[in-house]
Amino acid sequence: MSFAFTMYRRCVPKAAQILLISVTWFCSVGHTSITSDFPRLASYFGTKTRYEEINPFLLENPLLVNRKQDLLPNTCTPLQIVSVIRHGTRYPTHKQIKKMKKMHNLILQYGGGSDLVEDLRNWNMWYEDWMDGQLVQKGEQDMNNLALRLSSLFPSLFTAEKFKNCNMTFLTSSKHRCVDSTKAFISGLEQRFFGFPQGSIIGLDELICREPVVNDTLMRFFDHCEKFVVQVEDNDTAMHEVDKFKESPEMMKVLRRISALLNIPEDELNADLIQVAFFTCSFELAINNTENSPWCKLFDEEDGKVLEYLNDLKQYWKRGYGFAINSRSSCSLFQHIFQHLETAVAESKRSQKVSNPVVMQFGHAETLLPLLALMGLFKDEKPLTAENFSLQSERKFRSGRIVPYASNLVFVLYHCDLAETPEDEYQVQMLLNENLLPFPHSHQSVCVYDDLKKQYSHLLENCHVTEECKLLKVGHVSEDEL
């Protein structure tokens, strides 16, 4: 699609445009294939997926910028970038480590009879409780490199002057992995602007804006939404489909196969232990780049598809489209993003410099998934359930392709000098994981800002978090919440 064609079309669907952009999106993001150079299970780890599975070229060059896409041309000037970024690669949580130890102890107690089991028995259980979801060195590199790539893609927004003048905002969740991710991102910018050693510029250490601002109301909105906490987070029945799938024929087939491989009695195993064994493979790959871990040799690709679906079911019902409150609880974050865009447009119309051209916000997969669902992205025609695994092989909602480690949703606001009408002067593009993301209502990769506001006016004007999150009744989630 040419720049000229992209630039001057308002946000209305047209068949030819939809076809072209859909093909582009399918090839660039939605269906990254696993080649012989990649571990065979690498794309099935859901939220434990490494970022490189989405952009495989980063395995060869982690600083390579994807420029083969229709960003707006030179007649459009980027005014502002507003991002929501998931933290980088992390250690397992305390709960996961506890399950990992239990699974390994079962192998030590029962396992035997094969070289694979012997390798697992000899495997060093090096994960310790203190790690508890903290950012690993690879996670710091994820953020450092992301900062270098984004600043290279939008050099007019990311400048040393804007950084030193504190024209950049860095918000974060209070979790250590998010705070440390934010600091690593800032460190990447310092590397780009000032070179090494970092912090050597006179006065740089005193810059207030170098310190991330913690804002859990925005970045952990789910913790502050009573209705979500009571009806979903702390409600066992909300995960009914997940629990059913744990007992499904597909899951039982995986369990029986692993039981036979490890010589562990079936009644000693359950879906959670099988899943944590699978995730141990993912941690070994993401943290240590270990492609031949014995944990990975336990599973084949069919197992991977089943275990990916188990993880996606949880994300769908707890963070995605399963219940309305999942996404509605993110209204404050959505409105916050548009407040930044609105301020930038207003300042530009007054011929002022945009006061806050770079807004970086760091949170979790649990921050991004509800926001994407609120916007209507990656929504399947039929909900994910325990019974329709075989029918959902081509589903849009695949958490590993949407929110891997270091995933990022980026809004870019442009001013276009050659716009056909004054209303077309301000245009917006979205990127997910550094790939252009078509708007769900138009399937186009660019939208006039005023049209975008109209499209989401129901969220900007009528979604009030205080009311959305007010708990009117206690009990099971009712059907009208679906």
From TrEMBL:
Gene3D superfamilies documented for this protein: Phosphoglycerate mutase-like (3.40.50.1240)
Enzyme class: hydrolase
This protein's record includes keyword Glycoprotein: yes
Record GO terms (molecular function): acid phosphatase activity; bisphosphoglycerate 3-phosphatase activity; inositol phosphate phosphatase activity
Disulfide bonds: C76-C416, C281-C296
Positions in coiled-coil regions: none
Protein name listed in UniProt: Multiple inositol polyphosphate phosphatase 1
EC number(s) on file: 3.1.3.62, 3.1.3.80
SUPFAM superfamilies referenced in this protein's UniProt entry, alphabetically: Phosphoglycerate mutase-like (SSF53254)
Alphabetical keyword list: Cell membrane, Disulfide bond, Glycoprotein, Hydrolase, Membrane, Signal
Similarity annotation: Belongs to the histidine acid phosphatase family. MINPP1 subfamily.
Annotated transmembrane regions: none
Subcellular location: Cell membrane
Catalytic activity: 1D-myo-inositol hexakisphosphate + H2O = 1D-myo-inositol 1,2,3,5,6-pentakisphosphate + phosphate; 1D-myo-inositol 1,3,4,5,6-pentakisphosphate + H2O = 1D-myo-inositol 1,4,5,6-tetrakisphosphate + phosphate; 1D-myo-inositol 1,2,5,6-tetrakisphosphate + H2O = 1D-myo-inositol 1,2,6-trisphosphate + phosphate; 1D-myo-inositol 1,2,3-trisphosphate + H2O = 1D-myo-inositol 2,3-bisphosphate + phosphate
Entry GO CC: plasma membrane
